[in-house]
Design brief:
Length: 348
């Protein structure tokens, strides 16, 4: 009996990117359950994906320095993989990949091979023009000849315990929408006035509003400012959930409103429509994959103003600069996108 095909995946971060990678892993597991998958992943990201069926995780703590790299090396000692997906181009990830022994080391195409990425690979995925990050990740599955699916699937590991916790928090609300107001950088966040207006708009339509977010200072600060407007937030869960508990809350929501941040992509994995709020990056590349038509964006105008060219004539992934770009995103623009998303829900 021949040995199972051994695949190692290296994608450490961030939350949105590992959500995109889950779609690729789900595709591989669906068509090739015989492939044994080992995923080297970041410590925080593992909190969301631990328990994912058919996947062995090796956790890397980027704050651990040389010791963390050595721990990965020891965990994989004596193993040689048939293929490795080097799915991150940051130098730290490239260097970490060097401790893994693999016959095929598959990396990104030349255009995306930054920080010496090509030195750590011996094969490259196909270059695709204007590819969303998720589509780019699918190029790795293509290299193994995995059949393509008509519809995406995500094997997100949600325990009954997490679902029950979420229901205990939200079942008295009836139908609700989630606002996850904070990204990792303050410049990506929309205005407090804007979030309040969006909440009031949804309340008029009969929805209760739930705030979600992590325990970081940006999340807490903006949620506190939103809470200063009375009678709009029915439940504030910012800093009060695990990632899996947050995913369960997002799964039962009618709608999620979020800037360029992880919960937008978490919501996508569980089929919840997302109104994404964008200014600095091209939502066609990094926006919520299944809700592109519901994204409210000023990116096109901002990048043309800064570069003198429309985005189609610039390098894919070019970012607009500036701390106040999100202030150009008009409330009325976002409200129209909310109506569009809810209209899609009503016709299902």
């Amino acid at each position: 009996m021949s040995q199972a095909f051994q695949l190692c995946i290296l994608r450490l971060s961030a939350i949105g990117d590992v959500c995109h990678a889950v779609a690729m892993v789900t595709r591989i597991r669906k068509h090739r359950p015989d492939i044994k998958i080992t995923w080297i992943i970041g410590k925080i990201e593992h909190q969301l994906l631990k328990g994912m069926p058919g996947v062995e995780f090796i956790v890397y703590d980027k704050k651990g320095g040389k010791e963390a790299k050595e721990a990965v090396k020891q965990a994989l000692a004596g193993r040689v993989f048939d293929a490795m997906f080097v799915m991150q181009v940051a130098l730290r990830a490239n260097l970490l990949s060097s401790v893994v022994k693999a016959k095929r080391r598959i990396g990104f195409d030349w255009a995306r091979s930054k920080e010496g990425h090509w030195l750590f690979t011996n094969e490259r995925i196909e270059a695709v023009k204007y590819a969303h990050v998720l589509e780019g990740f699918m190029g790795f599955a293509d290299k193994l000849g995995i059949p393509k699916d008509d519809a995406l699937q995500w094997d997100m590991p949600l325990d009954d315990e997490d679902k029950e916790w979420a229901k205990s928090q939200t079942e008295s609300l009836g139908k609700y929408a989630v606002i996850s107001p904070a990204a990792s950088k303050a410049e990506r966040n929309w205005t407090v006035h804007g979030y309040v207006a969006a909440a009031q708009h949804l309340i008029q339509k009969g929805y209760k509003i739930v705030l979600c977010g992590g325990p970081g200072p940006l999340d807490l600060a903006i949620s506190e400012k939103i809470m200063q407007t009375p009678d709009i937030i029915a439940l504030n869960l910012v800093g009060k959930t695990s990632l899996k508990q947050m995913l369960a809350v997002l799964a039962d929501a009618s709608l999620v409103i979020a800037p360029d941040t992880g919960p937008a992509h978490m919501a996508t994995t569980v089929g919840t429509p997302v109104v994404g709020l964008y200014a600095h990056s091209n939502f066609r590349r990094t926006g919520p994959y299944l809700s592109q038509e519901c994204v409210a964006s000023v990116y096109d105008v901002q990048i043309k103003g800064q570069k003198g060219k429309e985005w189609v004539y610039l390098p894919w992934g070019a970012r607009a600069k500036g701390k106040d770009l999100m202030t150009y995103l008009l409330v009325q623009t976002v409200l129209k996108k909310i109506d569009r998303a809810l209209g899609e829900l009503d016709t299902e």
